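Batch job 17 of 40 flagged for manual review because the log was empty.
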Amino acid sequence: MSTQQPITLHTSTPAGLKDQTPKKVSVHLDHDRLMDCIHCGLCLPTCPTYAETGLEADSPRGRIYLMRALAEGRAETTPTLVGHLDKCLGCRACETACPSGVQYGHLIEGARAHLHEHYERPVDQRLKNKAVELSFPYPNRMELALLPVRILRRVGIIPLLHKIGFMKLLGNLGDMESLLPPLPPISKRLKFPVEWKAQGEKQASVGMMTGCVMQVMQSHVNEATARVLCKSGCDVAAPKTQNCCGALHAHIGDIEQAKEFARRNIVAFEDWQKDHGPLDAIVINAAGCGAALKEYPGWFKGDTEWEERSKTFAESVKDVSEFLDQPAFKSRLEALTKGRKQETGNGKQQTELAARDVVPHTTGASTLEAVNDAVESDAKNKIAALNTQTPKTKDQRPKTKVVTYHDACHLAHGQGIRAEPRDLLQMLSDNGEFEFIALTEAEMCCGSAGSYNITQPEMAMQLLERKMKHIANTGAQVVVTGNPGCAMQIMLGAKKFGPKVEVLHPVQVLDRATE
C-alpha cells in the first residue's frame, strides 16, 4: 500500500511564527488576493470535493492555505500538495458562498500556472495532459483522434469489446470512449454556415463562437443556437478564423498558450467588424468558454497592446441564455412558441430553484467581476442565488413531461447567470410545453469540469453518481444544461447510474418549441 508524502511546511522561527512576506517564488501566485480569505469556512459545504472527502486540504480554504504557503516559501511542491490542488474542479462554487469576494478562480489558475512551470509531473500525467492539450482545442485533430471510435461504433463492435474486457485493457483510452456522446457527422461541422439571416424584422447583429468540443461532438447544438438567434431577429456571423477560447490551457496552467488563442479570437472578430460592420454582441453557448472569454482582460492585465482590445471584446460577450432573456428577443420567441398558456390562478408561475443547505452571500463571479466592467450582479440572479424554496418531489409532480435544469458551474458561479435560462424554460412551461421541476443541488458540479473527468476520473464519477441520484428524485425525462461538458457527463451518468434521461441545451428546447 502506498503512503502519501506529507505536505512540508517550514515554520522554524524563535517565536513559532513564520514571516508571511511572499518570497516571489512565482509571478503567478497572487499573495495579495490570497490574503483576502478570512478563513470563515462558509465555502466548505459548497465545495464538491470537500463534500465527498471531508478533508480540509480538499476545500477552498485549505487550498488557499496551501497556495499561500507556496507564495511565502513555506511549502514545497510535493505530490501530496499538488494532488490536493489538482483535485479542485475549478467550479467556483466557493465564489458564490464567499462573503469576502475572494477571486478563487484567479487564484487556482495562478497556482496551476506556477505548477506548470515549477513541478515535473509523473510521465502518465504528462502524457494525459499533453494528449488533451494537443487534441481538444483543435477540431481537425480531435476529429482525427475520434476516427477509430467512429469506425468501431459504425461496425457495432464496441459493445463486444466492452463485454470481453478489451476496453479495460486500454486503460484511460477505454474509459474516454465511454465519455463520448453519439458523434454527429463530420460534415455538420465543415458545412456550418458563416452567416445566418434573421427571420422577420432584424433586431440585432451578433457574432457566434462555435467552440471546439461543441463543433466536433455537439454541432447540432451550434445549429440550434444559430436557428434560435435567427428566430429572435438576429443576423448571426460565425467567422471561420476564430479558434479555441483558451480555457482548457488556462485551467491546466499554460496561460501563455491560452493568451495566444485569445489574441486570435479578438483579431477574428475585430476583422469581421471592419469588413461587415459592428456586432451588437458575441454570443457563446458553452458556459466554460463564456467565462474564459469574459475574463480576457484579466489575462492581459498590464499589456499595453492587448488589455484595452481584450476589454472591448470581453464586454461584448454574452451567454446565449443571457442574450435571449432580454425582452426584445424573448418576446419574439414567446410569440413563436407552440401550445396554449395554462391558467395558473395567481398569474405567471415563479421559477422554482433547488433547495440549498447553505445560503450564499453573493451571486458569485468574483474573479470575473474584478476584470470585466460589463459584468454586474443582476437582481434576478441575487434572488436565484439566495433562493431556498423546496423543489417538488417526484410524487408531487403532475403526470406530464417533466424537465429539470442543472446549473453549469461556469455559468452560475463563474458568470453569476442563474435566472436567465430558468426564465426561458419557465416561459415554455407556462405555455404548456412541459412541467419545469427544480433539481436539488442544481449548482453542485457534475464532475465534468473541462478535462477533469479525464484527469481525475475517480472523483468525477463520485460527483456524477451524486448528481444522478438527485435527477432521479425529480422524475424528469429531460435534463437541461448550458455546457457541452456537463451534457456529456450527464449522458454518461444516465448510462452508468440511471435514470434514463434526454440531455438538452436550453437552445435545443427553445428550437423545438418554436418550430
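Reviewer: the log was empty due to a logging misconfiguration, but the result itself is present. The longest strand covers residues 204-209. Unflagging and moving on to job 18.
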